[in-house]
Structure prediction request, 705 residues.
Amino acid sequence: EPFVADEYIERLAWRTPGGGSRGGEAFDPKRLLEEFVNHIQELQVMDERIQRKVEKLEQQCQKEAKEFAKKVQELQKSNQVAFQHFQELDEHISYVATKVCHLGDQLEGVNTPRQRAVEAQKLMKYFNEFLDGELKSDVFTNSEKIKEAADIIQKLHLIAQELPFDSLMDFCCYPLSSPGKYHDLECQLIQEFTSAQRRGEISRMREVAAVLLHFKGYSHCVDVYIKQCQEGAFLRNDVFEDAAVLCQRVNKQVGEVFSNPETVLAKLIQNIFEVKLQSYVKDQLEEHRKSDAEQYLKNLYDLYTRTTNLSSKLMEFNLGTDKQTFLSKLIKSIFISYLENYIKVEIGYLKTRSAMILQRYYDSKNHQKRSIGTGGIQDLKERIRQRTNLPLGPSIDTHGETFLSQEVVVNLLQETKQAFERCHRLSDPSDLPKNAFRIFSMLVEFLCTEHIDYALETGLAGIPSSDSKNANLYFLDVVHQANTIFHLFDKQFNDHLMPLISSSPKLSECLQKKKDIIEQMEVKLDMGIDRQVEMTLNCMIGQMKHILAAEQKKTDFKPEDENNVLIQYTNACVKVCGYVRKQVEKIRNSMDGKNVDTVLMELGVRFHRLIYEHLQQYSYSCMGGMLAICDVAEYRKCAKDFKIALVLQLFDTLHALCNLLVVAPDNLKQVCSGEQLANLDKNILHSFVQLRVDYRSARLARHFS
Prediction:
């Protein structure tokens, strides 16, 4: 532990009798001093003893250091001597190695010609046996030495190729001539390879393949291997999965058998594509090519997708340097005859299918589609209608049918979505934007023109005239459904068409086409909304007038018994407010966005004007004025449902005006100068005061003047 002087002294004082306050013992400074002096002397003695020991150890250390340094110097000298001996030995070894290499070169120079002469002698011996027509050597008679025999036959065959033609003819006349034996042995090797493959003997297959590598029939050996690999491999219905499993299995084996596994595997894949897959694709497509375009396109898309997926799996294998191009060419060779006219079939099917979907819908409604008409007269009608907002031609009774169907739209968009997916997969990259634009044009024609535009034209013709007595929000339902369809149309445009044309000049063309069709629709929507709203508001106000005229009585605001009025508001007020609330809900359900606020504001202003003019038709007693205030309060509560600040402000002012019907004559001026009435024209205030039954009293006239 580290030495701390204060603690050491404390412990010393504590152990000394009289040095501390233990128990009741008194403190004795002399005794403590004496103990300190004695202890200091002991420490001095101990210090001297330790110092002597340290000096002795230092002397001993210096002595050992000198001895160690001397020993290191001796070792360095010994190391230098050993290094010199090592250099001498290395030079001697290098000299000997040079001599040995020189001697080896001389021996090789003598042995190589001798070895070649021996091999030539053996070949001449074997050649003589062929010339004699009798094969006696063990290498030809022993079937286990087929590898050595193959090497000899290969060399003899090369020699036979160098002989003059006449000699070669004589040579070939022998039934067991070298060329004949060459072919026989080649067939024997291929048969041996086939047998080994059937037995699953990989090592034997590797040996035979190595021998055949130098024969002309090596390619035939590869063909036999590929043929046998496919035996029993395509037993299931899924030829693509079978092909993937087969290639996976062969990929593990081919490297153990052949010296060029990538070439063999590539040849196997080529054989699978050109034989198995091409035959399967042809059977699947030709069956529906002329009879069923829908099934043909589905099969073409499915087969092409599965083929490209198989190609992606095969990319994992070693097929040579440019395997991507190799596999692409194989796929193209299978599908080229189908892809050349794909877009023609696609557009034809899409046109027929879309027309059938629309016709089936109109047939379900028992509707004979009208001819909208084109040309100069139709364009002239459109311009007149846009500028005057007048209906041209007779009104059509649609019986509330919008002729817009979510089911039809979903079906058309689904067909187009599938067409875009097929187009993306089956089109050549250079033709993809052009083909996608053609599909988009079909969608515009049948969805926007044949369905939405037709519904808008029919809707415009079905809007009742402005003097109609029944409020009909028919065209607003058309608008609501058309907006929903536009959102779906725009979503498909962004999700499925944009990725196909985003980096091509067709993008601007598609955007312009979309903009034109939307602008054309918006013109008809705006025109129809204006006519529908005007007609609807007129009908609503007319219905409110009818309710007020039928239900409001003059005695409501001038009761015979002022002290026996039991109702909170009049029956006319209840029915009008109920009717208005229903119409507000209809408008909110039929429109969206700013259109709702615009229509509700116009309805609210007309509603206020109607109530204002209606109230000025009656005279009011004190209790009748209170009832009028209650009615206006209920109208104001109804106006809150509009959620339009201006409408609520108008009814607040009307409510304040009704207070003039009941306020005491002395307080009229004070009420008229209030916050809500101060800015109104004095004639308006006067007109309301005149409605009081006590207006003609001199006191009231005097106060108001």
Notes: Confidence is low (pLDDT under 50) at residues 171-179, 374-382, 389-394. The CA atoms of residues 298 and 422 lie 8 Å apart. DSSP finds 25 helices and no strands in the chain.
